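S.,

Sequence below, as promised.
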Amino acid sequence: MLARAKYAMVAAVAFLACLACVAQDCSGPALRGSFLQPALGDAWTLKQWGNEFQYMRTAELDQMVIQWTADSKEKTTIYPSGIAGYTQNTERDVVKRALDAADASGAQVYLGLQTNDDWWTNDISDKAWLENEAKVANALADDLWKRYGGHESLTGWYLGFEVDNVESTPAEWANLVAFYRTVGNHLHKLTPGKPIVIAPFFNPTAGFSPSQWQTMWEYVLKRSPIDVLALQDGVGVGHATKKQLPSWFSAVGKAIQNSRPRMQFWADTETFTSDFEPMGIRSIVNDMCAVEPYVSSYLSFSFNHYMSPQQVNPLYYQTYLDYLATGKVDSVRPTTPTDLTSDAPNYQTIHLTWDASTDNVGVVGYNIRRDGRHVASQRNGTTTFRDEQLEPGTTYTYQVSAFDAAGNESALSNATTATTPEPRLYPTDIALGKPYTATMPANPSYPDTGGVELTDGILGSTDFTDPAWQGRATTKIYSFTIDLGAVQAIKEIRSNWLQDEPPAIFLPQSVTCSVSDDNVNFTAVGTVNKPSLGDGTLSWWYTLTNLTGVNGRYVQVQVKPGWNAGWTFIDQIEVRQ
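The prediction came back faster than expected:
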């Protein structure tokens, strides 16, 4: 079940792994389109929308895929819809702004239909759920076409349920075919000649092999009115390596040729790293090169989010333009950072400083190594780093390297060592055995057994199947509230989380703790941001400690998951004094 979460996403990938000595694999392939998630478009002004399409045009991109226009679970849309029961959850009409800007620039827009978090647990095995989602998709398409069909830039449709290679049966394939037929036939009748795009993904470590997946897609595509299959390469997210791409793209290409040869086969090239930062341009080019024999075009996830100068360091955009102009990616390494020093201001933190590197194009960041392993990257333009949520009373050794937008990385700096002091101990867990509530239930596959797991004092192993863990597959903020029974002094609040990236279990982006006397009015006492831990499998405490003047009966722990549709797993919350 867990492997079905697409952004069942991240296994360990080599971070910005193109050193200067590694040449690009080929020259010539270029991105043509980009997926856009609605929140980003909602944040843009009209001027920024115009600028974005100009940046895309200069970089030879003329296609944008709006990833979804509605959330059928939350009953929300990104435009003022006429669908009963749905409300708009964006400040602006994102669909209209995208189409207006594309009309003005001569670009093409594909409108995604709905998203729904329940896809990651129901997927193609739940026939009744898919049948209902097909009805929703058709009603949504009718509404969108009625409102926006006059836009010249409205080119086609995107079906956002991303099918994976988790083992499935022919009966489940038939469920998928029924969904594609119901929606596809409706769209083709509603908007003749406008293509329908899907973007499946694969995980080589689980599920069907390439040949088995080929068999599945031959069955599905032969019976489904789909026009374009844009296969996610999975490199950025960590599902796949560049070396694994040919076998998977070849298998899907054969499935198309054997079942529906009129279809177009595109790549959906990922442009981000496993920590959801911009990927080096050489890695992007090499990933496109690896699948060039099989595909006719390249979408991306995402130029708009990870290459546009409106979103990230403009050096990424400039380096990509230089590649388009010359056919080659810059290969000059930055100089080595020097004079790295460290100190430990408290028992959870080590502070690093170093002298800046230089580069022929420009340095975009620094990689931080702790005890020989990459743990973080600094991209804010400074030459300092705070390594937080460390183990107390522990000695750590650090080195730093610089990298540019191409992905060239410098040699390592000098090493520096620092030791965190011993902590002040707070021995009594006053939350032990206390009741609590949650704003979001745990997934039935990884439940909160008996509703006592968070305060029972039993720590889980690092095996996600350990029943001590409870899991949630969501990008939405949720919280737990513990009732201590009476107002008490609180010195420390901490929660234990699991990281296991291959099955897409990620540490939260942040955990915010608040207290209250009445369970109504809460006062925040602090936030713990995701620590720098690298990509290994581990459990980790998010800790707020040495709290002063903090009292309350109720303790709320608010969790902000990652932006991707992965999982967060928790097994314990402690409140100490």
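The chain has three domains: 30-325, 338-419, 436-576.

Coffee later?
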